[in-house]
Amino acid sequence: MTPLEKASSTSSPDSTCRNRRDRVAALSPTLSRVPSASIARGVPEEVPELTARFGRMLAADGYLEEAVDALLAAGQTEEAVPLVEAATGLLMSRGDWDKVIGWSEALGETTLRKRGPLRGAQVRALLLARQQRRVESLVHGMLPRVRLAS
Question: What is the pTM of this model?
């Protein structure tokens, strides 16, 4: 039994901490050796780059959703955009509106303005999540400002 299978098989509340540690060990032996105390002290300078590298590894292995999360957490928005485009269809088909909305917010208005399909996914996710006011605000922001001559 692999460490990941072992970690997944135990589900008692008091083993939660151990399960997370086992999952981390199974997924990344290097990260599992980082003492919890050093993590609690703050974010070292190399964490964003390590997170971005981890995101690239996930993408290479086909884990697009996890890769996007890692790249966005590392601040690599531009690198995440093609992965977001590739993964958004799956999120929409399974009804994960909150994830689509969160990714849209993380990508920012400038990126969404340039990427029509991502803007469309954002609007659909907001509508399906019943966030009508945000859709109205978004649409009003996209309309051109028209001044009537007096």
Answer: 0.63
